[in-house]
Amino acid sequence: MTYGDGVVIDRSVSREWVDNAVRLIDADAQRSADTHLLRYPLPARWGVHLYLKDESTHITGSLKHRLARSLFLYAICNGWITEGTTVIEASSGSTAVSEAYFAKMLGLAFVAVMPRSTSHAKIDLIEAHGGRCHFIDRPSDIYSEARRLAAETNGHFMDQFTHAERATDWRGNNNIAESIYRQMSREEHPVPEWIVMGAGTGGTSATLGRYIRYRRHATRLLVVDPENSAFLGGYETNSCEYVTGMPSRIEGIGRPRVEPSFVGQVIDRMMRVPDAASIAAARHASSVLGRRVGGSTGTNLWGAFTVVAQMRAAGRTGSVVTILCDGGERYADTYFDDRWVADEGIDLAGPTAVLDAFMTTGVWEGQPG
């Protein structure tokens, strides 16, 4: 509003669309049951219980469903997305799948900017939800290209890597941390000794770390990082400028730079997990569970097995929780394809032997935590 010339600028007409958009997202959440907390079969005599928070049961099949819901609500309530807005995201796959789902629900166009190397299964899922895939050859161009497309279409760049840690209500409101502790409340060891997970945007680890401190839990947070990722280097050097410039082969986690949503100060420990170990652990868990899990779940389990073995060696009992991020069906042509593994120069024999020995003896002979 300006004073003196009597001009009034009224944007309230858009509120009707906003109100309905928030209602649609809330209604979708109400129709969805919480994700399961699965008990991983470890020998009872060990006295350590391992749980998997199964995020693959979301309607879009991955942990990123929570993030996409939060990002849409955040952008809508900030006035960045309204009726007719084209939504742009920089994503290697799973976030784009989930955001395409919500964009379609709201009648919005969606474009995912991604490397050409993204798995065909994820591309098919994005397109099945009405999204369009825009491919780049150099992973480092993903951010600038997303911004360019947003400007070209007068759309909104969702920018998961910046907004993930601030879009989620980390104090509660049924976030993943609150859900884990509620589901653990009647277990023999209701407060986990460790929660183990990888970092993609860093938003979920920030939510978990903040919630643990807010609720004054004794739980410690271990973040596992794949090869080529910058998060571990940034954590070691306490630098948000740390870069590797190299893409991660474990889709969904690991970044060539330390992303703005990564909050290292709430993490108790980090460790590097070789890609061969991630893939071997994903295959091992798939055999044990009778269903395929993705590579990032393998990374998580490698870290979880490490701390389970350390607890056993110290004579401690208790519980450990990690994340089943998504199903392995999306990686049939990569992590579960022997030819792809061989072409990548990955040898699974060593980590597979470590896993087999661990399940037999409870002793960990892999990379120390």
Give your account of this protein's structure.
Helix content is 42%, strand content 14%. With 369 residues, the chain is of the alpha/beta class. It folds into 2 domains: 33-58 and 171-361, Rossmann fold, CATH 3.40.50.1100; 64-164, Rossmann fold (3-Layer(aba) Sandwich). The strands form 2 sheets. Strands 1-2-10-7-8-9 form a 6-stranded mixed beta sheet, sandwiched between helices. A hairpin with a 7-residue loop joins strand 1 (36-40) and strand 2. The chain is globular and about 80 Å long. 49% of the residues are buried.
Number of strands: 10
Distance between the termini: 59 Å
Number of domains: 2
SSE succession: HEEHEHEHEHEHHEHEHEHHEHH
Strand arrangement in the largest pleated sheet: 1-2-10-7-8-9
CATH class of the largest domain: Alpha Beta
Described by the principal axes of the CA atoms, the overall outline is globular
Any idea what the CATH architecture of the largest domain is?
3-Layer(aba) Sandwich
